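Re: [ENG-882] Designed sequences occasionally contain unexpected residues at chain ends

Forwarding the minimal case from QA. Structure tokens:
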């Protein structure tokens, strides 16, 4: 098994390097360097890839003028055949030239949250959860995640449906640990302001009805204001409810809430940041109102099409220069406590 993994790692690295070499042109002069806070080395270990070559990844980053990238594992439940996490990702950091960072817990903390009823969290569970969170911090991670609160299945392979209360006792504990350590929590949560039917376009395993989660999400944010929570995938909305007014109201009431922006062809068109004429006025207005609370999180899976990374680049290039600098780079350096990279 180990020899097979090594062979696949080399093959994927060569594939990525080949793709980078074929990409048209190099980075244009004057582009704002991006710090991408949410990217995945691979979709699933089940697909046969343990770790993507760091050298191939760095070449792709150069093509899109990505200065630094935060890698994290997808949020999988316990026993998922494709699970991977900090052990696999940490190996990439050594060869990343200081340009790669890690968020972890999607492979360990998330299964504990998903597998424990909010009404049955005893001292032993709390102790084990804290121990794992402390191990993640000790491994050099800059945050905890990706944590699933409302995660739809794509209907592909082993992409699961997951749901839990945002104010789950283990999430409240994680907020305390994140505050103690100065680390962020990366949350994947489709917006459900009130109970609603599952959108009909959703595929794969899914319930008929979704339960409201915004009020409970605010309880998580209120629990410890020193805990910085990044609500991932702003701009990629699958319920039709994550609109600018909802996000503005949450940002206004919760100073420890941040959002990472993902640009993708899927999702409800009315909630996307980009329109035919560039960045939509409502999105420009919310970025102006909260210029220090947004970062880029492409949600790019490597070894696949680079569409999400391309769209992230296009979005930053379409912003006014001051916002492009803040959203594309400066906010992420500060929020994730990353040192500015100097080639």
């Amino acid at each position: 098994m180990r020899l097979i993994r090594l062979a696949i790692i080399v093959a994927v690295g060569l594939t990525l390097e080949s793709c980078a070499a074929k990409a048209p042109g190099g980075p244009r002069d004057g582009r704002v360097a991006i710090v991408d806070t949410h990217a995945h080395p691979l979709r699933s270990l089940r697909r046969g890839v343990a770790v993507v070559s760091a050298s191939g990844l760095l070449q792709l980053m150069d093509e899109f003028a990505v200065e630094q990238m935060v890698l994290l594992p997808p949020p999988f439940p316990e026993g998922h055949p494709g699970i991977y996490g900090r052990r696999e990702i940490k190996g990439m950091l050594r060869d990343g030239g200081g340009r790669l960072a890690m968020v972890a817990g999607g492979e360990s903390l998330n299964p504990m949250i998903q597998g424990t009823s909010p009404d049955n969290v005893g001292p032993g569970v709390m102790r084990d959860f804290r121990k794992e969170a402390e191990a993640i911090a000790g491994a050099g991670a800059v945050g905890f995640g990706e944590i699933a609160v409302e995660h739809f299945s794509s209907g592909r392979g082993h992409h699961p449906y997951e749901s839990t209360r945002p104010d789950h006792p283990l999430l409240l504990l994680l907020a305390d640990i994140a505050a103690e350590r100065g680390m962020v929590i990366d949350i994947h949560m489709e917006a459900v302001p009130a109970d609603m039917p599952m959108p009909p376009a959703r595929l794969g395993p899914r319930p008929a009805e979704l339960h409201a989660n915004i009020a409970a999400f605010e309880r998580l944010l209120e629990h410890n204001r020193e805990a910085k929570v990044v609500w991932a995938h702003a701009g990629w909305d699958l319920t039709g409810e994550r609109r600018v007014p909802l996000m503005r109201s949450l940002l206004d009431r919760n100073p420890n809430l941040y959002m990472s922006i993902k640009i993708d062809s899927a999702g409800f068109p009315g909630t996307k940041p980009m329109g035919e004429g560039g960045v939509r006025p409502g999105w420009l207005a919310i970025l102006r109102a909260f210029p220090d609370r947004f970062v880029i999180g492409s949600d790019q899976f490597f070894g696949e099409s680079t569409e999400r990374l391309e769209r992230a680049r296009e979005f930053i290039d379409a912003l006014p220069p001051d916002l492009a600098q803040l959203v594309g780079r400066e906010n992420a350096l500060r929020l994730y406590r990353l040192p500015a990279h100097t080639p």
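QA comment: On inspection the terminal residues look reasonable. The chain has eleven helices and 14 strands. Proposing we downgrade this to a documentation issue.
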